[in-house]
Amino acid sequence: MSAPPPNPVPVAYQGGIPAVPVWLNKGDNAWQMIAATLVGLQSVPGLVILYGSVVKKKWAVNSAFMALYAFANVVLCWVIWGYKMSFGHKLLPFWGKAGPALGQNYLVNQALLPETTQYYGDGRVETAMITPFYPMASMVWFQCVFAAITLIILAGSVLGRMNIKAWMAFVPLWLTFSYTVGAFSLWGGGFLFHWGVMDYSGGYVIHLSSGIAGFTAAYWVGPRSKKDRERFPPNNVLLMLAGAGLLWMGWAGFNGGDPYSANVDSSMAVLNTNICAATSLLVWTWLDVIFFKKPSVIGAVQGMITGLVCITPGAGLVQGWAAIVFGILSGSVPWFTMMIVHKRWTLLQHIDDTLGVFHTHAIAGLLGGALTGLFAEPQLCDMFLPVANSRGAIYGGSGGIHFLKQLVGGAFIIGWNLVVTSIICVAINVVIPLRMTEEQLMIGDDAVHGEEAYALWGDGEKYDSTKHGAYSDDTSHNKASTGATQVV
């Protein structure tokens, strides 16, 4: 009896055992988990650091904690009911059926998005169901960190005055009634997905929705204290840059992970992301120098963010030269709306959007969605989109229709978030005040959390022995401090 022929596949790549089923692609799975981790690092510690440092010192702890709390809360809600509402079986054309994603039999099987099969009008299959070559557990976690960062971005609009208890109620409600709708509609097999609206990695699902919802929530919560609105300097610019750096580098997972595979389109998305971000940062900085005579570090970070946001809906769908066009416009259009329009439009001045999320995410996200409708390259579209022959308007054919679809898709996200966020805020305010008390607004972190970010005297004020006591914290030398500590 002859021996069986040797297996030509190396042992490391052989499947057929419980932990390595035949459908598992180890490379895809590794990249998907890395991409998810990169997106998670954008939030924790990325935006936790950025929020804690870009605000006035007295709000550093509260701002960082709002981001940290949102991340943890979303994780639990996501696996209990949120994932299946976003990527499970259809309940309504814009919403999936709620259910847990916790069972071993569900999580170790091959990932699939059950409502993503695209059909022709006569019932024939146009594009098969999305079935990546890794387990459902990787898919659930990857999509979870996207949901989490959306809430954290939204928080940027209400920093410095939203009641932390109201925020605790807001996070699960908004995730359930707003985020899941956008995610299912555009990504999970909802009506916009099958209609052909292009949102590669969240220009609409994440950035447009968080920008509009944040602006809406800022209206209902009300403004910061008068003193804070007049003067709100960052407490640590260098630490802010560290958070911004984590955000930028983490975007490789944000856009590079959305093909659900370590393929050529993923590489294209990562490169375009960095091209656009760099271009946008430079354009924003140049505009600051031209009009304000000085390059602003905060402005450069804003330009970086608008570039990252703008390319997101088309990261793997446009050519490299188009990414430069995206960057030029993302560095100039949101700059114009923030620096010029905002100061002249009463409505924008009336609503206190603390970090300007409306401009950096809503405007940049909508701009990116529209530009994707213009510049989406047909061959790249075929690599990713379910609707055959998708293309941008400059490529002729059905491109003009796709551009209009982009505008309609954006309008749906805007309208839904305006209405649902308003309902959520009004409902919460019946039970829990949305805004902090005047005493908390005056004192800041110490009143809200009983903690402060830095063990430094005052908030940009000189040492006053009648206010701070006769001695410093270190009483071993038994001398009173006579110097002044300036805190930015």
UniProtKB/TrEMBL annotation:
<feature type="transmembrane region" description="Helical">
    <location>
        <begin position="30"/>
        <end position="52"/>
    </location>
</feature>
<feature type="transmembrane region" description="Helical">
    <location>
        <begin position="64"/>
        <end position="83"/>
    </location>
</feature>
<protein>
    <recommendedName>
        <fullName>Ammonium transporter</fullName>
    </recommendedName>
</protein>
<feature type="compositionally biased region" description="Basic and acidic residues">
    <location>
        <begin position="468"/>
        <end position="477"/>
    </location>
</feature>
<keyword id="KW-0813">Transport</keyword>
<dbReference type="InterPro" id="IPR001905">
    <property type="entry name" value="Ammonium_transpt"/>
</dbReference>
<feature type="region of interest" description="Disordered">
    <location>
        <begin position="468"/>
        <end position="488"/>
    </location>
</feature>
<feature type="transmembrane region" description="Helical">
    <location>
        <begin position="407"/>
        <end position="432"/>
    </location>
</feature>
<dbReference type="InterPro" id="IPR024041">
    <property type="entry name" value="NH4_transpt_AmtB-like_dom"/>
</dbReference>
<feature type="transmembrane region" description="Helical">
    <location>
        <begin position="171"/>
        <end position="192"/>
    </location>
</feature>
<dbReference type="Pfam" id="PF00909">
    <property type="entry name" value="Ammonium_transp"/>
</dbReference>
<comment type="similarity">
    <text>Belongs to the ammonia transporter channel (TC 1.A.11.2) family.</text>
</comment>
<feature type="transmembrane region" description="Helical">
    <location>
        <begin position="321"/>
        <end position="342"/>
    </location>
</feature>
<feature type="transmembrane region" description="Helical">
    <location>
        <begin position="354"/>
        <end position="376"/>
    </location>
</feature>
<dbReference type="InterPro" id="IPR018047">
    <property type="entry name" value="Ammonium_transpt_CS"/>
</dbReference>
<dbReference type="InterPro" id="IPR029020">
    <property type="entry name" value="Ammonium/urea_transptr"/>
</dbReference>
<feature type="compositionally biased region" description="Polar residues">
    <location>
        <begin position="478"/>
        <end position="488"/>
    </location>
</feature>
<feature type="transmembrane region" description="Helical">
    <location>
        <begin position="266"/>
        <end position="285"/>
    </location>
</feature>
<keyword id="KW-0924">Ammonia transport</keyword>
<feature type="transmembrane region" description="Helical">
    <location>
        <begin position="139"/>
        <end position="159"/>
    </location>
</feature>
<feature type="transmembrane region" description="Helical">
    <location>
        <begin position="204"/>
        <end position="222"/>
    </location>
</feature>
<keyword id="KW-0472">Membrane</keyword>
<feature type="transmembrane region" description="Helical">
    <location>
        <begin position="297"/>
        <end position="315"/>
    </location>
</feature>
<feature type="transmembrane region" description="Helical">
    <location>
        <begin position="234"/>
        <end position="254"/>
    </location>
</feature>
<keyword id="KW-1133">Transmembrane helix</keyword>
<keyword id="KW-0812">Transmembrane</keyword>
<feature type="domain" description="Ammonium transporter AmtB-like">
    <location>
        <begin position="30"/>
        <end position="454"/>
    </location>
</feature>
